[in-house]
């Protein structure tokens, strides 16, 4: 649960329902991380025109690279949260060889 709370805004810790029911917390965390994925995708799509002429070209490329890394991290985190939620809902996973 600590990991799921770490993915959410700090104010989420104040909600009793999230502390009491891990599956509800996983649902909230999944929504929050998914919103981050969407924001990273939009940022990546708009970063070049929005910064053109404002910062040097190397700074724009560094910002693009940062969005790409953050987007990949968030996609992986969203997948992990989804797996945790599925497990909390009772899904059993079989190890693959």
Fold and architecture overview:
The chain has 97 residues and is mostly helical. The chain is elongated and about 50 Å long. It has one domain. The two termini are 29 Å apart. The chain contains four helices and no strands.
List descriptors:
97 residues, mainly alpha, 4 helices, elongated
How many helices?
A: 4
What's the shape? elongated
Task: Find the count of extended strands (DSSP E, 2+ residues).
Answer: 0
Evaluate the radius of gyration.
17 Å
Provide a concise account of the structure shown:
With 97 residues, the protein is an all-alpha fold. The protein has helices at 2-7, 16-20, 22-51, 57-88.
Topology:
Layout: H1 2-7, H2 16-20, H3 22-51, H4 57-88
């Amino acid at each position: 649960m600590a990991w799921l709370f770490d993915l959410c805004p700090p104010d989420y810790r104040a909600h009793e329902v999230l502390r009491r029911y891990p599956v509800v917390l996983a649902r909230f965390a999944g929504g929050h991380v998914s919103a981050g994925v969407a924001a990273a995708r939009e940022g990546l799509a708009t970063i070049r025109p929005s910064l053109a002429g404002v910062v040097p070209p190397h700074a724009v490329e560094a910002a693009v690279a940062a969005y790409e890394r953050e987007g990949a991290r968030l996609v992986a985190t969203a997948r992990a949260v989804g797996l945790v939620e599925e497990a909390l809902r009772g899904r059993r996973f079989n190890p693959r060889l």
